[in-house]
Amino acid sequence: DRECTFSTLRKELERLKKMKQAPWGFLFAGHADSGHADGTKTLGFTTNGELAPLGSSEKDELVQLLGRHAKGKDGALELVFLSGCESLELGKAIKQQNKALRVVCWETRVPDAAGYVFSRGFFESLGSQDKQKGYDYEAAFKAASVALENKHTRRPMNGMNEVPYFVIGDPDGDPAVTPVPAGVPRLL
Prior knowledge:
This protein has helices spanning 6-18, 56-68, 88-97, 112-127, 137-150, and strands at 25-29, 34-35, 41-42, 44-47, 50-53, 79-83, 102-106, 152-157, 160-164, 166-167, 180-181, 185-187. It is α/β, with parallel strands linked by helices. The strands form five sheets. Strands 1-6-7-12 form a four-stranded mixed beta sheet, sandwiched between helices. Strands 2-3 form a two-stranded antiparallel ribbon. The radius of gyration is 18 Å and the shape is globular.
């Protein structure tokens, strides 16, 4: 969506709540390391197809908004999934606002391909679970980590036809390292 602002998110959550269709999860896939002048990092929403990071007051409002929509309060939200670089600080703030929320975020930068593989592994695991019994977010997190580390590529090396493509680790280092450090995901 070329117009995906914080205001749009707020309106959509309220609309869904009124329709008794409150979401159980919130997935943000995008830049989570858009910076403010004070050095804090935030989500990068968009307006007219351009990056539009949250203002510092909106960041606090986002934390409050997600907390208000949490299961057990006035909503159904159980999971906040922040698939973006260096989203740990925001993830911790969201978790602090409502301890019942499960938050998946990234401690480090994350290459786009690694974020995709991890997210897909996580949600495929949830999709195979019995929702009536409640989701096992720890199992989904482990499955996502395994999916990431099981991604292989064809690169003849030491007589092998395939080698691991990703390893969980901090990607700030030598870009020629194999396997590629995918980042460090966290489940709060």
